[in-house]
Amino acid sequence: MAAIDLGCRGAVVGLSLLIAAVLLRDRRDTAARLAAALVVAVAASAISGAPGFPRPWPYWALILLALSCSGSVLFWLWARATFDDDFVLRPWHGALLVAVVGAQLFDAWPARGVLRGGLDDSLSFVYLGFAVLAAAQTVATWQADLMAGRRRLRAIVLLGAVAWSAAVFFHNVWPTLVASSSVWSAANASVLGALLGITAWSRFQVAPTQRPSVLLPAAAQVPGGIGGAPPGREDKPSAVDAELLRRLQRLMTVDCAYRRELTIASLSAELGVQEYRLRQLINEGLGYRNFNAFLNHYRIEDASAALADPTQKQVPVLTIAMDAGFQSIGPFNRAFKAATDLTPTEFRRLALAKHAFGDGASSPGSAGKPGIGQSD
Predict the structure, then answer these.
(1) pTM of the full structure
(2) Range 2-209: architecture per CATH
């Protein structure tokens, strides 16, 4: 059993470091960096949990402990960065990571003589909480996700990594409910090895064709105008139904379907197609990764026209937002700011000022971020 345990842990360490190196070589976005840090934390956990590793922790081993106990926070942040296109890493995320690692190091500090063991159960609940938050993130944005590979990855996260995190939690809190320590250690290493093996296969099997990784789908740029081909896809044969694409564009631009409360299910029913075909159509035909971003493109374009209209200068911003299809002012303000770098009020003031001076040729949001009429 010990030989199996050590062999699996060696495989985990090797695969983790290989995946981290390839991720950092191929990509530089936040999700890739967090994924690389996460697999390094997995490698540290595999080493520090090996049979015969010295206990209590010697000072030199606290570095491995710091890396391994950061895995729960990194897993949650990775899920946020991978499944939420609007996620931005903030300083408080780093502060939270430092706090969790610091608490674990204090609990394992060899010179500490008081409160020994008092933090163990509490930290186990904290680690489980981050796994639950990661699962919640995968579920919260699942329906709006238009990328098939990323939707499959959500299932892996929910069924694999979260289940493993729960098993580790129950072993830490109620070790008597699980098998003997040697059997648990070997099983733990085997599951880690299997998860890393699937990860490595999904990462490397697409390398010859240079397609986006199923593990971490590459960030796609959306087209500059409605119906344009996403950058980098010009030489790729399209599987998009051109007639269906025209029907979708007519529904959005002529019938203004975006003003209603739309979902993938309701829009696919209106078009008479399966949901997966509509997802493929919007993602591959128009370049959007998220259904909400697709709708917000039309809604913000509609709202910007109303805000720039002198005849509607007395209409409240909330009314314009609701008429464009937004359900409340908060999401409208955030989406409008992200698209134009201006608040709706600032946009209206600048647009009306330009109109008063007879300059209506350019929109206030045309500088900086993509302007109105462009996707974000």
Answers:
(1) 0.73
(2) Up-down Bundle (1.20)
